[in-house]
Amino acid sequence: MITSDEILGKEAIDSEGDFLGIVMKLHLDPVHKTILGISIDPGLWKPDLYIGIDFVKQFGVDAIFLSTIPDSKYKSIPVFTYEGKKIGSILNISIGKNKLREIKIQINPKWRNFFRSRQTFSLTDSSIHELGHSLVLKKNFQIPDGK
């Protein structure tokens, strides 16, 4: 058994081993008397992250380990072609259980003619060369058809 004192104030670590912030709150279900999730304070000027209890892998001695990566970690990071041209930034990302579902890209205005005047487009992991502090598209990336 552990107490709330052993959870609150601990570091929260995502499934890639990155520090997300400090656990500040426990969310409880008053009817079923169970933990629903935790709130993480990622730091100054960033909104708190809510993580459902299903995504908590382990309550460690010094940290809380998560089984996933919060979607918000990748929002607004730059998107580059394989050749290094910045074409936009991540607008939204959908991650399943350790699997990327879809990424919506906001296109920079100067690249909109290249992307058939669209402001956004979606892609899947098959179009991605690398995803970390930025997203790099594969060398032979094809512009997705659609609106």
Describe the protein's architecture and organization:
The chain has strands at residues 11-13, 19-29, 34-41, 49-52, 56-59, 63-66, 78-80, 86-96, 99-107, 120-123, 128-131, 135-137. It has no helices and 12 strands. 0% of the residues lie in helices and 46% in strands. It is mostly beta strands.
> Which range does the strand content fall in?
over 45%
CATH homologous superfamily of the largest domain - what is it? PRC-barrel domain
Please bin the fraction of helical residues: under 10%
Question: What would the principal axes of the Cα set say about the shape?
Answer: elongated
Count every beta strand, where a strand is a DSSP E run of 2 or more residues. 12
Poorly predicted segments:
none
First and last CA, distance: 53 Å
| Helix/strand class | mainly beta
Over all CA atoms, what is the radius of gyration? Answer: 18 Å
CATH topology of the largest domain: SH3 type barrels
CATH class of the largest domain: Mainly Beta
| Topology as a string of helices (H) and strands (E) | EEEEEEEEEEEE
Number of helices: 0
CATH hierarchy: architecture of the largest domain: Roll
| Largest β-sheet summary | 6 strands, mixed
Q: Provide the number of structural domains.
A: 2
Enumerate the strands of the largest sheet in spatial order, edge to edge or round the barrel: 4-3-2-1-6-5
